[in-house]
Amino acid sequence: MDTDCTVLVIEDDDEARAPLCEFLGAAGYRVRAARGGNEALAELGSAPAGAVLLDLVMPEPDGFEVLRRVRERDPALPVIVLSALSQTEDVVRAMKLGATDYLPKPFDPAELELVLRRALDGRARARSETAPDPGTLPLLSGAMDRVRELVERIADTDVPVLLVGESGVGKDVIARRIHAESRRAARPFVKINCAALPGELLESELFGHEKGAFTGAHAEKPGKFELAHQGTIFLDEIGEMDPRLQAKLLQVLQDEEFYRVGGKRPVRVDARVVVATNRNLELAIRQGSFREDLFYRLNVVTVRVPPLRERKEEIGPLVRHFVRKYRERYQGGLEEVPPEVMERFHAYDWPGNVRELENLVRRLVVLRDPAMVLGELGAPRAAPGPAPVNVAANHVRPGAPALHAALPEDAPLKDVARRAARIAEREAILRALMRTGWNKRKAAKRLQVSYKALLYKIKDCGIVDPRDAATVDEA
Predict the structure, then answer these.
(1) Going by C-beta distance under 8 Å and a sequence separation of 6 or more, which residues neighbour residue 268?
(2) Adjacent-strand bridge partners of 232
(3) Residue pair 305/147 in contact by the 8 Å Cβ criterion
(4) Alpha-carbon dihedral sign for residues 234, 186, 355, 148
(5) For residue 222, cis peptide bond before it (omega within 30 degrees of 0)
(6) Residue from 370, 311, 364 nearest 472 by CA
(7) For 399-450, where are the alpha helices, taking DSSP H only?
(8) 468 pLDDT exceeds 60?
């Protein structure tokens, strides 16, 4: 078993340490144990571990000092702290020192395995994301010169950064680059998608909550801002945040403190804030959905990330990178994208940007059938002309209504109008889906219909998500 599956248990209480080690051994992990801080540091010095379970309450050096020294040696090593539910302040302190996660005592076996696996998976993803190749690929083209220049100039400052660009262009990669080149690089990088959660849950995730703050809040929980202390917090899709939460975010930016949900004491925090959006925030201000004072607080430095169609010289390096990535993940598959496919890639406009390209390459690697994937790109671009492009042609379920079939010559005008409306509706829906990388909730907002209504329309029009052609679970 490799190092990444080795867990070091640091616990001075024999009665608590023994069942932990026994459970982890039965679960397939290689287990090492230490009865105190000095023994633990000696263990880590003699051989690396994949993760650490650390009791905070120990004789000197206590768990906090051990955590501080571990972070000096290896900022990325997953460290899960063990603490009684009553020791909430200790947990928050440990998180600010760089703990990866925490488990209440006495531990629940299922929760322990879930938290441990999440920490190990997170380290594996971080290694992939910080490898030299994927970290530099998005900054290769001439169109990215301005982005690269801005990142170098602002990375080591603490000013807020607003990243703007279409969905899928790689704004999260730029956010990570800003963090990696800053003096906060050894501290946490915490990301949260503001569009992925309803307002109440998003508030709890961002700012944490006190015990009893709402139904189901059985214990205190630190929020993402606390976990990002001395590091960077990346708020993706900031334009989707509820105006009430925008006011709370403004308070954090102004005062560097906030209140947990249900809390009565302010929590101080030191975190670099990077936000991203694919919306026109100035238009959102005029429409009343985004606070003007928050916009000006965030808009200290704005970085526009250009779409892939403006940086096509990156397509070749990106394709080669994604082929390597998914051949390694799935242990085989297509070794090289054929030249005729690369020609089509360069001729395509990529409305879903880098995310769409990655999804296509992933399916190419898995299916090893370029013809199946090329059908999703439609016909190569022709010179501009009056004839509309039927964008729905390659995304329609077999057996769906044939809206482009010819009507009888004597068809009533109302049937002609109804058919034209259905065609226009289908193509409008598909364009919105493609523009949002097939994110149906975002597409519904773009089309100004409810999410459920859009799902009905998608089914009614027979539209299929091209990603469903090859569903492969993430490793």
Answers:
(1) 256, 257
(2) 189, 272
(3) yes
(4) positive
(5) no
(6) 364
(7) 413-435, 440-447
(8) no
Burial 311-320 (b: 16+ CB within 10 A, else e): bbebbeebbe
Q: Give the residue from 336, 359, 356 showing the smallest Cα distance to 348.
A: 356
User: Is the pTM for the entire model greater than 0.70?
Assistant: no
Tokens 């406009």 correspond to: 349
pLDDT in tens, 12-23: 888 888 999 999
> Counting Cβ atoms within 10 Å, is residue 91 exposed (0-12), middle (13-18) or buried (19+)?
buried
Tell me the per-residue pLDDT of 332-357, one tens digit each, with 9 for 90 and over.
Answer: 788 888 888 899 999 999 999 998 89
Average pLDDT over residues 180-208: 87
Identify the structural domains of the chain with CATH numbers, from first to last. Answer: 3-123 (3.40.50.2300), 131-139+146-306 (3.40.50.300), 307-382 (1.10.8.60), 402-475 (1.10.10.60)
419, two tokens:
């058919």
Q: Which of 133-147, 281-295, 397-411, 421-435 has the highest mean pLDDT?
A: 281-295
Confidence at residue 82, expressed as pLDDT on a 0 to 100 scale: 87
Check: CB of residue 169 under 8 Å from CB of residue 137. no
